[in-house]
Structures are given as structure tokens and as C-alpha cells.
Amino acid sequence: MQMYSLMKQLFPICRSITGAGVRETLAILQAEHLSGLNITSVPSGTECLDWTVPPEWSISAARITDESGKTWVDFADNNLHLMGYSVPTDAWLTPAELDAHLYSLPDLPDAIPYVTSYYAPRWGFCVPHSLRERMRQHTGKFHAVIDSDLKDGALNYGELLIAGESNSEVLLSTYICHPSMANDNLSGPVAAVKLAKWLLERPRRLSYRVLFIPETIGSIVYLSRHLDALREHVVAGYVLTCCGDERTWSFLPSRRGDTLADRAARHVLKHMNVNVTEYSFLTRGSDERNWCSPLVDLPVASIMRSKYGTFPEYHTSMDDLSLVTPRGLMESFEAYRRCLEIFENNGVWTTACVGEPQLGKRGLYPTVSQVGSAEGRVRNIKNILSYCDGADLLTVADTIGVPFSECLEIVGVLEQAGLLARQNK
Amino acid sequence: MQMYSLMKQLFPICRSITGAGVRETLAILQAEHLSGLNITSVPSGTECLDWTVPPEWSISAARITDESGKTWVDFADNNLHLMGYSVPTDAWLTPAELDAHLYSLPDLPDAIPYVTSYYAPRWGFCVPHSLRERMRQHTGKFHAVIDSDLKDGALNYGELLIAGESNSEVLLSTYICHPSMANDNLSGPVAAVKLAKWLLERPRRLSYRVLFIPETIGSIVYLSRHLDALREHVVAGYVLTCCGDERTWSFLPSRRGDTLADRAARHVLKHMNVNVTEYSFLTRGSDERNWCSPLVDLPVASIMRSKYGTFPEYHTSMDDLSLVTPRGLMESFEAYRRCLEIFENNGVWTTACVGEPQLGKRGLYPTVSQVGSAEGRVRNIKNILSYCDGADLLTVADTIGVPFSECLEIVGVLEQAGLLARQNK
Amino acid sequence: MQMYSLMKQLFPICRSITGAGVRETLAILQAEHLSGLNITSVPSGTECLDWTVPPEWSISAARITDESGKTWVDFADNNLHLMGYSVPTDAWLTPAELDAHLYSLPDLPDAIPYVTSYYAPRWGFCVPHSLRERMRQHTGKFHAVIDSDLKDGALNYGELLIAGESNSEVLLSTYICHPSMANDNLSGPVAAVKLAKWLLERPRRLSYRVLFIPETIGSIVYLSRHLDALREHVVAGYVLTCCGDERTWSFLPSRRGDTLADRAARHVLKHMNVNVTEYSFLTRGSDERNWCSPLVDLPVASIMRSKYGTFPEYHTSMDDLSLVTPRGLMESFEAYRRCLEIFENNGVWTTACVGEPQLGKRGLYPTVSQVGSAEGRVRNIKNILSYCDGADLLTVADTIGVPFSECLEIVGVLEQAGLLARQNK
User: Fewer CB within 10 Å: N-end or C-end of chain A?
Assistant: First the structure.
């Protein structure tokens, strides 16, 4: 399964926090990739914690024309042209009157910004600033038509439960509510699909809960129904977003900052030998806002490439398929995959051996002792034996500065040799 | 009430650890500013902890003349000319004999040093080094006359208790035992008077104990009488001294270093955006020596401008009214005032809301969501909600990097909105 | 007793982990320096923890000659020429056949490397790389003769118990198994002898356990017999090795890293004002591998000069008597001696005095108070009084930045003055 191909397939769909676009997206994931995906429908008006599920928004067409019949802006060209949740309109306006309904970015004059107004009735068009300036010069009137609909319907989300031996769970949360944008946000769902498929192909110690939700309201709705289960079972989790470009790496820790999810992510990124900017939780912006809120307090962090809010194309039409690359996606998948491998395999190993064991008689130490003979793998073996004193293997790996995967392989050898035993698997 | 004017009024009085100067100073404070000031008198010879209250020192006149009748040094010109607690004398001496009783500073040849000998009988004159060198050249004898008196009397101190709702107290300690010097030390008492008047003008959650004492022996005497009350009630405190010049800011932490007094002071100084030198408690030099001693262990720190011992004019006649400025005093008052506002308003607020609340429906979040709409005040609101999980507001303010006063205002709004509630006020 | 002379005396002896060389070395120490040294003999084949005591190795002669009778390599010239634990041989070989039994260092072409094969039967010669290259050019055959013997015998070690008032112990461990090398390792045993003699000359609060053991197998054997005693009594310890050259200082902390042994060593090195490289425990290489292993976990660190593995001459014939100096040894002895003085004298002193005591009446404070009168020793006295609040004196010394010895002297004065009292000696 190619992440980039899936992204291309999903890109044109006009998604919002409710409506046909979300359903179409979830249907593709379920039909073509994750047959176990459970799609839930929550009626508009449902009270969820401090929120209410909003009406469902449908949009058929939207355009701005002039008296000559010329089309200035057409939703059919780019679904970002319409402010999300715009109410219907059909009005002739002067350029000045229309301008109050236009949104643009003076610093990025060719980009169409992404703007929404979910919870206040309003309509608007999002346009390149260069176009807006030309529209301001127009001498006649404009005809703004929005053929949209806001009525009781449903909010939809997808949920995939992947059972493992234990009911301890890893939460993988991503959102499917943005229209045609790539790094933020289709990179997240396609990486989540790839991770889910990877998990389904092998035996698992832990269970996994993979969520495809509309951002913010989706996590609120989910919390309103599953708070106790999440608090009881989730041992680590990530919000998957902005993981598709190749320009940099970003890490957003959980609110607590030192949970298993944080430690695994920092470990993996360190041993990928990449430059990483570690952001403060104060700069959070996605569903960790809810997953990590005081009374929920889940161990949820985020490994990203160019973080939302920090790259110039963020929330504009320039965050397109040229920004995200197959390699960028693959590297992000790999980083997350390594974190999952840590969760699957982490544990506490201890020794019953007083003093160092005799490694030589087990073929684990060179029989000729000379300068340098205790370096490299031999040194790692000794260091693992020395620090397996009650700490989990991830801590040992960090202490001795060796990748978890390499430590795990050595621990396996030492377990075989009877020198280490796993505690309370 | 102008701090600088009060300082000018108090400057000429010849103070020492006992005697008329202290009484005159306290009488002015009581009569003109703090009518509730309680002035206590402790008889000479009273045993206090490891110390004994010394005899009371009175001084009428002191001068050095020569055979020609020329006056070389006269206490009437500057009360620093006489070593504090000098015993009476009336003697004709050669220049060499007199020189053994002279004190001067070779590096500051025009300054009169401040020297005392409270606990060993001795007499001496303090002179500019340039004058001392001329006196050494004198060919005749000198006549040194000191008309002083050391006899049983009393040690006096002033104490103002400002009651609040709670019997938890803030200790504000300053000393009134130095003769004519400004930064060290009249800046401390005048700032303490201003803070006391400010406190008296408004309702108070906490109680305040403002002390005007002779340094060292005053805090010993006070501890000997109020140790249990101080240990039981004091939640924070400061020694007010050296807070009058404009040259720099200094912070001396308490012995423990992380008490509420320390945290508030560091917070306030940080958000005043000034350069601050944080000294080690190892360099302490005022009554925190007693307030923070092992068996007392109060949370008492000190915010200063140019710290005692670090500025060239320290303990000389050059620490005069030109060194201290109205602005320097006012800024120091402001720093301390902000600390008191923290003590008054700090507390623990928690939320009952699972997940982020919907701020938009309460007018606390913009209804149009676009790039940057979650910054500034909105970001601060969200960060406060996220970190109000059991920590006090000062900790939250430090965590999110926002001034306490701004956090407090937001907490008030969120309390009004039913989103935060104060725990155990 | 001169450490350097003893080293010269011991240098020529061919030591290994067993055999006559170890016995001869221990006999010299016992006969000439430490009459209380207890020499233990453990039979070959004894099972010790995960190990077995190996056969005893004896060596009479070893050489390589050629058909012309010319001697190319002779063990009689340098005992490093023979790989330790070489099995007997008497064979004519081509240069290529012989080369498989040669060990050399291309980067140090004039040095003979130190190589052993304790636990796998093998024979070999260690030669300068320049000689090896000439031997490869030789056209005839070589005659390799090793007159060695591997048979049941014993492993020997020396142990000196120096009793003190308390049964709390300091462990001083050094190894005596290397042939003719100086920094690694004769510097360790000679420093241990000097420290033991120094201890024997004075009263002691603590007890001391000084071990002269073959490295690795010696600490295993010792642990197999004394684990409980060590775990119960040892409060601090050091492995003495590589303490003879003058080039640098090295510190290897214990596994825990903050034990009394670590804190004392760091304190002493800091106040010696020398440059010290602090290594990670991950780079350990001597018997702390066993003393600090998880189920043993003793507080054992190591103060070294040029650490094993880090200096070019390490484990070669160039680590000879010219590398180590009397001054280098003496400075190392001094560093360790100061650590022992800390162990002997450390304790908790507290005051019963509320507030600062009046130092002046006890002659501990100048009676004239002027700028600078509270500095230096007076400041140290006050700082000690302020921090003696339950922390041990080493912690107080580190907090106030004053050498332990100076603090101890001041504490003595304050104890005399009734201002401090030692808790639970």
C-alpha cells in the first residue's frame, strides 16, 4: 500500500467536520484498506461534554460572478475557496460589500487560505490576495452564490480496534476533516492506515485503537463515550499529523512530557540521527489538546515533520501534493513504527547472576584479550547486564546510548543464555 | 506619601542599634505615616537567645582639634565621623597615637567609612583617607573629645501588624540602625512604609508583619519573643534593604531557595524585563541571617537594587541622597508590590470540564478559525485551562510564561464562566 | 616507604592471574610492608559464582629461534613477549605459520603488546610490529619453544583487614596480575600499600579492607566468599589503578554515580584545582565491573591519572617505569588520602542555637565592624553554621564551596564553643 497514492486519491474530496466528504473518505479507507474500520454516526444536536454536535454541512456549488457573466471565484476549482460551514447566499454586492466576506493572505498573495466558521452562521470566500486586490478595483457588482445546506445530520468518525494479548492499549489518533491539503492533514490519515496495516500483519502484545476523527469535536465526542476505557487502558499514544514533508522533524511532547510515548519518540528520533525541533506542549494545536487535558491526561505526543503553524504553506492551497513526498511519508511511518516496536517489546529484565557472568564460555566474549577486545558489541552486552537492575529496557537503552532494537536483540541472546529473565511480562 | 521625601527627612538623624536616633526615627514613622506602629522597648542586659541587649549609646558631641584650636574632625559635620558605640574620651595624643583610633579607606580617599564596635569598648574617628594623611603630617598634638555615654537603657523596635482574613502572614523586615546613609539603609524603611500604607488601603487575604528593627540584634530580640508565631504563620517574607538606586537589580534567595518568596520574586523580576543578578545565599548579609537560620528557617528573601557589599559607596558617606532616586525607590516598591499581589491572589484553581471547553460559545474564542486565530490571549486561556491541574497559579504562570497578573485576570474570567473553581481558598 | 622504589622492585616479576609471579609479589608486600596481609589460596577448579578458577600457569622459558640458531624473540628479555597462559609448544614453522601466533600493533611498531588467553588453550608471541615485518621476510623456518605448564594449582590473593572503631568499611581494591607494566598496573598496588601503611599509623573510626587480587577472576572469587559482608559493611570504596603518571586526572564514578565514594572523590579533585576528565561508568574496565554489578551494587569508584584504554602506551611494553613518576604516584596517594580523611571525619553536626550565635563574644568575629570584616574565615564560619541543618559535612562543604579539611577544622572550633554537636557519631 502506497501512502502517497492514497493521499492523491483522497486529496480532491471536500471534507469538513461533518458531511459527505468525511463519509466518502472513511468509506474509501474501510473498503480498500481497513475492512475492520468501524464507522460511527453521531446525530447533530447530541450533547457531548461541554459541546454540542453541530448541524451537518452540505455544499453543492459556490461561485462569484459579475454582471458580464465572468466567473471570478469557483468552488469547483478549489474547495478551499469556500469558508467551511458557509451558510447559503445568493446576493448582488458592491466590491466593498463583498470584500467583507473575503479572506486572503497579504504575505502569500497567490495562496488561498483555509478558513472555517463552524459555530457561528456566516459565509465567506477565500481567495488569493492578488485576486482580491483586482476584485476591489472592479467597477460593477458581484454575484455571490453559495448553494449550501446546514441541517440536522450526523458527525462521523472511524475507529479500528486491533486486539493484542494485553488490553493495555496504544492510541493512534488522526483527523479527517480538512479539505484539499496534504501535510496538514492527509499525511496523518495515510500514515495511520499504513501503521494499522503493519500492525494487522503480525502478532501483538498490546492492543491498538486507531481513530480517524474530525479534529477537536471528534475527540470531544470520542471522549464523551470512551473516557473511562481510555484512562484505564492507554499506555501511550500519538496524534498523527503533518508527517509528510521532508524538510525537518518536530516533536511535540505530551502535557506531562516524560511519558512512555515521549520517551519512545525521543529515543527513536535520536537514533535516526536527524535534526529535531522539540516544541513545548504550550504550542500544541491538535487533538492532544483534549487527550492531554487535565481530567483526561493521556500519554499522547506527536512526531511531526514541519509542524502545523510553522511552515509558510500551512492552512493554504500551497499545502498540496507537491509539498509532501513518498520519502517524507515513509520516514515518518518508520519513526512511528519504531515507537510501536518499543511499546511491543519494552519490559524489565533482571539478572540472577552475582558479579559479571563469564561471557567467554558462552561465546559472547573474545577469548584473546587485547587492546580493544572489550569494545563494540561486547561493551554493549556488558552495559546491558550492568544496567538491567529494575529499569525498563528503554531506560537501559537510553542510559547506555544504544538503539532499543539493538538492545532488544542482545537481551534476547542473554535470555537464551540464561543470564537475563523478563519480569512480569 | 513620597518615599524620597521621607528619606530626606530621616537622613540627618544619627541612628545606631540603640539610642535616641532610633526612637526619633520610629516616632516620625508612627506620627506621620503608620499610626498603628507598635514601638517596643527592651531593657539593656536582657538575655535574648545567644545574645544580650547591649547598653544604650548616647552621643552629644565629638571632635578632634589641635593646639591652635583648629577643628580637624567634627561629628556635627557628619555623624559617620564617629565610630558607632565609641566610649567617651578626652585626650591629647600625638599624631601616631591618634592614628591608631582613625579609620579610613585608602581606595576611596574622600569617603568617610561607616565603622562600629558594638560589643567591645573602644573609641575611634572615621575620616577621609586624604585627611588622615594630612593629620599624620601634623607636628603638634591632637585633642580628641568624645562626649558619649554608654549606660543601661533600652533597645527599641517598631512592629506593625496588618490583619487580613487569614492568619497566614507575610513578613516584611527592615532595619533602622544606620546613621546617615541612603541605599544601605534608608531605602529599606521608606519602601516598607510605602508598602504598609498600600496594604492598609485595601482588603487583604493575608496578614502582614512589618518590622523596623536594629539589624542583627533586632532580629535576635524579635525571634526570642516571637519564634513560634513566626514559624507557624509566615508563608513568605522579604528583608527590605538597598532598594533605592537605579543601577541594577539584585536577588538574594532564601536559604532553601525555592520558597514562595523566592518564586514570587523571580517571577516578578523576570516579567519586569530587567537585568537581575541572582546572588547565592552564601553572600547574605542582613537579617535573613537570622530569619533563615537552621532552627528558624523562614521563607525570607531579598529583592535589591545594588546589593550591600557590591557597590563602591557601600558603608561610606558617599552612600548619600544623590545615590538613591525617587524612580529607583518607586521601581523597587513596584517589584515588592507585585510580589504581595501574588501572595494575596495565589491559589489552586481546577476545572471540572473533561476535554477542552467550547470557548467560542462563551465569546472567548474567535468564531472564524484561520491562521493565527488561536494565538495571544486565546492561547493563554487554553494554556491556563490545560495546566490548572493541581498546581498553584504562580506555578501555572511560570509554566506558561505569562505574568501572574495576566493569568489572574484570565482565571477570573474563566471562574465567571464556570470553567475554573478555586480550591480551599 | 617509597612507592616508586617498590614499583621498581616488583616490575620485573612475571605475573599472571595465577602462578609464581602473583605469589612472589604478595610475599614481598607481606614480608616488607604489610605484615598483616593475609594470603589466600583457592584451588584450580573451584566453582565461583558463574566462573571456575582456572588451572595454574607456570612459565620457565619461551623463545623463537631460526635454523641458524639466531634468537629472534626471547621471553627472558621481556615477559610481555609471551601471550599470557600460552600452552607449551615446540615446533618448527614457516614464517606464515608462525605469523598466525604473533601479536603486534601496527600503530605502535616498537611496542610489545600485552595479550592473554586465560580461558581458551592457545599459544602466541607478542612482538614489535617492526620485528614482525622482518620475520615475515625471513626465508627459512622458525623454531618456537614455549616451556610452560598448565595444571591444577591455585589462585592467590592478599587481603588486609584494618579494624577501626566501627565495622563500617572502606574497600580499597587493586590487582596484581599484570606482568611488567607500570601505570596499568603496578601504580595501583604500590599506592594501596602506601595508603594501608598510612592508615595503620593512626586511630581509625572506620574499618578498611584492602585487596590485592588478580583482576576480574579475583573479584569474582572474593565476591563468592564475602558478598554478604561487603554488602553489609562497605560504605565507600575505590579501585586503585592507573594512578602513576603525571599527565592528567581521570575519574570513573560508581554505577550509581552519587555515592559517598563519588562525592568524596569529586570534592577532593575539585579542591586540588586540577583538570579532571570525568568518564561515564559505561567506560569502566576494572573490578568495579563486579563490585558495582546489579546484585552487588557497592559504592566503588576510581580516581586515576591517565585512565586505562586512553593513553597510547596502555597494555604495551611502553607502559614502563619511565611513564610513572614518584610525583605522579605521590599526588594520587594524596588524592586518595584526602578521600579517606573525608570518610573518617564526615558526619552530621547540628546546632541548638536559634538565630545566629554571637560569634564576637567567643573571639570568632572581629569586634570592629567595617567593610570586609565578615569575609574569609568569618564568612565560612557563618556559612557552616547556616547549613549544618541535617546535611553531612561533605554536603555542607560542597554547598559552601570550601575544602572539607577547612570545614572540619572550623566545625571543631564550633564544637568546642558549644555551637555545634555531632549527631550519632
Answer: C
